[in-house]
Automatic annotation (TrEMBL):
Residue span, ABC transmembrane type-1 domain: 138-406
Residue runs in coiled coils: none
Lipid bilayer topology: Multi-pass membrane protein
Organism from which the protein derives: Novosphingobium anseongense
Residue spans crossing the bilayer: 137-157, 169-191, 245-268, 274-297
Cited PROSITE patterns: ABC_TM1F (PS50929), ABC_TRANSPORTER_2 (PS50893)
InterPro entries: AAA+_ATPase (IPR003593), ABC1_TM_dom (IPR011527), ABC1_TM_sf (IPR036640), ABC_transporter-like_ATP-bd (IPR003439), P-loop_NTPase (IPR027417), Type_1_exporter (IPR039421)
Alphabetized Gene3D superfamilies for the sequence: ABC transporter type 1, transmembrane domain (1.20.1560.10), P-loop containing nucleotide triphosphate hydrolases (3.40.50.300)
Protein name: ATP-binding cassette domain-containing protein
Amino acid sequence: MSNSIVAAIATLAQMRRIDLRPDWADAAVQVGRDDQEALDLVCQAIGWAPATKYSEAPRAHEFPLLVYHDTNGWAVAERIENDNRLGIVKEGISTTWRDADQAHLYDIVIPLPAGKLTFDNAFDVFKSAVFRRKNTIFFAVLATFVVNLIALVTSLYSMQVYDRVVPRGAFSTLWVLSIGAIIAILFDFALRVIRANMLEDEAVKIDTEVSEFFFSRTAEVRLDARPPAIGTTAAQLRGLEQIRVMLSSAALFALADLPFAILFILVIAKLGGIIAVVMAISFPIAIGVAVIFAKLIREDTAKAQISGNRKNGLLVESLDAAETVKANRGQWYLLSRWNHLLEEVHEAEIPVRRLQTISGTIFGTLQQISYICLIAWGAVEVFENHISMGALIACSILSGRVNGPLLGQLPSLLVQWTYSKISLQMLDGILQLPVDRPADVEQLRPNRLAPALSFSNVGFAYPGARTGVGVQRLEIAAGERIGIIGGVGSGKSTLLKLMAGLYAPQQGQILMDRLDMNQIAEDVLRGHIGYLPQDYRLVNGSLRDNITLGLSDPGDEAIMEAARGTGLASLITAHPRGLDLQISEGGRGLSGGQRVLTGLTRLLLAKPKLILLDEPTANLDIDTEALVLKTLAASLQPDTTLILVTHKLQLVNMVGRVFVMGNGSILLDGPTGEVMKRLQSPAAAPPPAQAPAIDAAEGAGA
Ligand SMILES: Nc1ncnc2c1ncn2[C@@H]1O[C@H](COP(=O)(O)OP(=O)(O)OP(=O)(O)O)[C@@H](O)[C@H]1O
């Protein structure tokens, strides 16, 4: 980071304890300036709101702030001293600048990563996104109000025409009234178009905000607490748009349409007198039918939604596991499960649709009966000269406004509402899952973390499992090279994930450099730990994207240098698209060995202090394995800690200390030579271990 502005923003983010996107500095460096104007350009490049410049001295609680000085450049100001000095942090060093009034102070809003925002339930996420757009909502409600008022105007127009124009032939009044009514209708048209456009624009923003939140939040869920049904969870997340559409139409209905229905009934009472009783009876009946209908469909919509989501899960699973399914003739098994789920969905959906049709018909009949009653009663009232002919016409138009669009949309609105409510409950379920780093807990952000680990009384079990991995006491010093061996399912990978801080123990504590791993900020931890899982998955994008995943772009030269060290370079040079080789969705497009090499290349570029490898060479040929091991050995600094899980003897020879695992415990721990000797002599074989029992409830609840 050569620019002082980049260093200053990084320091400010650190002081405010906010994670910056891994690639943020690239965008900032590309601006290529370091003068006073650079800040606005950097904010623009990263997509942040423009900085606010202070014209007066800031108050104490407003610090830390960015500060620019013509000779000293950019830094972070911590405070203003009494003698007009500024307390400064520049490149990690605290200092003071004289003449605070010569410096320019700026505040910037560094957005919190979406997942770091805290909400207790899904409804609040939508509410917050919607309420941030109060002006648009206010305009939409106002526009709906005016549109309804115009409906009132057209009914009054008819009344005037029937009562004043027709009996007297007052055509000049007719022209004035007609022109007025047409203007009102054109205004109504313009309002509707503007309202629709505004709502559409805001809907896109709300969708982006809400889905960004849920996407990041789902990604933050602790790996050991992730819901086992990935496809089903993905389907649950798809309910977002449905909820947003529902909430906006429900809001307009409740805030504008429903109050107007009541106003229309009052106007009918004013114009038509007693005949308003028809509406006063039919309207509550319609609402009552709607409420009963909503209750009746609740259970079935829930069932249909759950089975529909499971159906989606099955689809994802069958596509993902297509090779296994095809090779083992598993199509029939999956097809029968699919058909079962389809039947469940239909079984639940049919009564909902039937009830929806019935309620629609009831509403239609109710509308027609109330119309006939209104006209019949109205005719008697006209005959008895209680009301005018025009008033009856106006009342009939208004009754259509109450019954027609308003009650006509109720059945489908209610079905959508019930579906959305269930989607909200499912999203609530996702929000309840524990995340890696709770947003309300202050995270530790040490500048340096020595790659030393310390386990005390650690116990971990997968949700629902009785036993898991247990480590009473374990000390790993910086710079150690350790191999973990053991039988299939003995807990090696789980132990490695605990060391990587990807799983949190349900009992005990794991410290890194004497700090609780759970309390260290995620970005700091990931910057220090390089973890290569057994089944390294790639993500949709280019090979370059995968190699630099989560890293600041090191440039193609550095990438190729690292790729030469792992042997990935031969793939890159042989492929016509080189680093732009596209990895398809699901990480397909490369062989198992090439995927591991991609992960290793990334690891070499990241230069972590703690390297955790899970069977790194299991998929590699002898030559590539030798190349990878040589490069790895050469890249290790004296204080880099290397821990690898392996079944291969040649890898064990690379390390100075070996753990032998069995049943979730470390059975043997010692210098490589000694442990190997003990393993080879049957008399001194490791004692059989009892799997460490972890409280099942605790395990499941984690
Ligand atoms: N995601 C998971 N959910 C539930 N149980 C799991 C999960 N992953 C592993 N297990 C269980 O935990 C135990 C330890 O698994 P782990 O993957 O740590 O073993 P391992 O020693 O690495 O095995 P291998 O040599 O086959 O890779 C196994 O009994 C396994 O069934």
